[in-house]
Amino acid sequence: MARTIHLDLDINGKTHGLDVEPRVTLLDALREHLALTGTKKGCDQGQCGACTCHVDGERVLSCLTLAAQVEGRQVTTIEGIAGDDGTLHVVQRAFLEHDAFQCGYCTPGQIMSAVACIREGHAGSDAEIREYMSGNLCRCGAYISIVAAVRDAAATLGAGQKAEAA
Amino acid sequence: MRDFSYSRASSIEEARKAALQAGAMMLAGGTTLLDLAKCGVGEPDQVIDISHIIGLDAISIDERAATIGALAKMSAVADHPAVLAAFPAVAQSLSLAASQQLRNMATIGGNLLQRTRCPYFRDPATFAACNKREPGSGCSALGGVTRNHAVLGTSEHCIATYPGDLATALVAFDAVVDLGGRSVSVEDFFLAPGDTPDRETVITPGEMIVGVSLPTSAAARNSTYLKVRDRQSYEFAAASAAVGLELEADGKTVRDVRVALGGVATKPWRAREVEQALIGKALTDETVTAAARLSMNGAVAQPASSGGNHYKIELAPRVVARALRTLGGLA
Q1: How confident is the model over B47-58, as pLDDT tens digits?
Q2: The predicted structure's pLDDT at residue B303
Q3: Across the beta sheet with B65-69, what order do the strands follow?
Q4: Kindly report the CA angle at B234 between B233 and B239, in degrees rounded to 5?
Q5: How much is the ipTM here?
Q6: Chain A: nearest CA to B114, how far in angstroms?
Q7: What's the mean pLDDT in B96-115?
């Protein structure tokens, strides 16, 4: 019988206890052990970005992160970015408005990446958005609409920040 | 991926002691270790997580040198204002590497220790022969598809390219790797394959990279990292150059110049012949072009019949020349 270790993971503001083998990645912990299947498994080797989540607010690849590594850190997944009342995040709304997907499989990773990209200040131009979103592949080729959605969401969030500052 | 035990080290001493156990490997960002564990190249029995050691991610810089802790993230160094000002080529080498997700995970120490992207090395299930994985087993790349393999520093046992960008920039500016008990220049830290391609660095069991230090210089302040690749972003270099330039007061005579190449060699490659050919000369299109060609002295290409890599011998000097022209105001 495989050895397991007990982990208490902070995911989307809630503590989840689980017993897993040490080799279990954050991605597999989310999908197979915690039924949080919004985070997608694409290549499972760090090349496609479908599994993008936030750890302590920074975007990372959950397929190359051990679940054990993030104990004590704050994990945010696609399930955790809408409001408590179900109000969509500005970036989620922008993806809908711009039809920034076809099959939708890469979309959770795209959105998690875009939320961080805007927060990092790396959405200043289309060229910068393309560069800083390059870790998220879309095999349907919805890139033009994805860039438009990120640009639009960045403008909305930027305007919100200015209004708050004023 | 084979299972392993997992433990966290809370200090450098604890990590080094734990790493001496059989089958132990250190985990920092995890981007290389887990990737290689999944493709069956790295099979740790014990993973020692060093990422929670406090203070090892510090970045400090004064007029003499920058010191970067081994656990500093690639993204933190790439965006550090003082690093950008004193070592633009180093910051650029990081921001042009990988993706933002990987840069948020991968550490400076781990980046230096990343393994080659040679597809034969990374696929043990299909290709049993690899002198890097199994000394003496042969080289599947020789006679295979070699478009991305090295033309400099190769041996009859291995032609795998060192894939990193950061180390290329570091070797140009005389950076030093701090191994705790001893320090080694980045240039000497990496080993060419020779007869022992399984030995890639001088690091020994129980040692770990603690940090990197970089002496400041006028050439480092006026530097750039030019990376040419098959797609515009999120790709390894077909050829890259870290170049730094200091001119005399006349604005055209070369006082100091640094040139290192990536994507074409088995280790981060300092092109000293190029530097020597330019020091004391006026920087012109002609001197730059002639000097840049010297970077390929000793280069050996693989046969064109196997989708060879001869293009790198043409490409790399052009990358060096373009970077020099940009810095020298000739572009």
Answers
A1: 999 999 999 999
A2: 87
A3: B59-61, B65-69, B211-215, B176-178, B183-185
A4: 75
A5: 0.96
A6: 14
A7: 98
DSSP structure string for A42-101: SSSSSSS-TTEEEETTEEEEGGGSBGGGGTTSEEE-GGGSS-TT-PPPHHHHHHHHTT--
CA–CA gap between residue B16 and residue B175 (Å, rounded):
23
Sequence-separated contacts (24+) of A130-134 with Cβ below 8 Å: A130/B233, A131/B233, A132/B100, A134/B99, A134/B232, A134/B233, A134/B234
Does A60 lie at the interface with B, CB-CB under 8 angstroms? yes
Residue of A nearest to B48 (CA): A69
Q: Which residue of A has its CA nearest to B44?
A: A23
Tell whether A6 lies on the interface with B, counting CB pairs under 8 A: no
The confidence score (pLDDT) of residue B22 equals 93
Which helix (H) or strand (E) segment is A18 a member of?
strand A14-20
Q: Which residue of B101, B235, B236 to mutate against A (max A Cβ within 10 Å)?
A: B101
**Which domains are assigned to chain A?**
5-80 (3.10.20.30), 90-165 (1.10.150.120)
What is the enclosing helix (H) or strand (E) of A8?
strand A5-11
* Chain B contact probe: residue of A28, A69, A133 with most B CBs at under 10 A: A69
Q: Which residue of A has its CA nearest to B122?
A: A45
pLDDT of residue B118: 98
Closest in A61, A68, A131 to B102, CB measured: A61
